[in-house]
């Protein structure tokens, strides 16, 4: 169950990272409130997952999910480049996340 909670926390991290773009430096009230709520929920779920999972593993997986999700959504939503090298690096992060899951 901790891995599922950690996965959801990572998805929420992606949400708040993308949300930061829409807050315009926290000058837009609705995106700012939603982003702050998503931040809080992500950290709370991370802390719940870390009751069971090793701290280093949990934190690395959480940030990895957030990094991959944010990079992919940046490509889709903000027309960021999807070069082969960039996609390969994202793939390496996914491999690292999977590796930590299998050895933990």
TrEMBL record:
Protein localization: Cell membrane
Gene Ontology molecular function, alphabetical: transmembrane transporter activity
UniProt KW Cell membrane keyword: yes
Assigned keywords, A-Z: Cell membrane, Membrane, Transmembrane, Transmembrane helix, Transport
Chief place of localization: membrane
One Pfam assignment: Multi_Drug_Res
Membrane topology per record: Multi-pass membrane protein
Transmembrane region(s): 33-52, 59-78, 84-103
Alphabetical GO biological process terms: xenobiotic detoxification by transmembrane export across the plasma membrane
GO cellular component, one term: plasma membrane
Family affiliation: Belongs to the drug/metabolite transporter (DMT) superfamily. Small multidrug resistance (SMR) (TC 2.A.7.1) family. Gdx/SugE subfamily.
Protein name, UniProt field: Guanidinium exporter
Lineage: Bacteria, Pseudomonadati, Pseudomonadota, Alphaproteobacteria, Hyphomicrobiales
């Amino acid at each position: 169950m901790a891995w599922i909670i950690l996965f959801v926390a990572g998805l929420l991290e992606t949400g708040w990272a993308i949300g930061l773009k829409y807050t315009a430096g926290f000058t837009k009230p609705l995106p700012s409130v939603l982003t702050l709520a998503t931040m809080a929920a992500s950290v709370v779920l991370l802390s719940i997952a870390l009751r069971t999972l090793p701290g280093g593993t949990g934190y690395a997986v959480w940030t990895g999910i957030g990094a991959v999700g944010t990079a992919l959504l940046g490509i889709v939503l903000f027309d960021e480049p999807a070069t082969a090298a960039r996609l390969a690096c994202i793939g390496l992060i996914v491999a690292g996340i999977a590796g930590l899951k299998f050895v933990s």
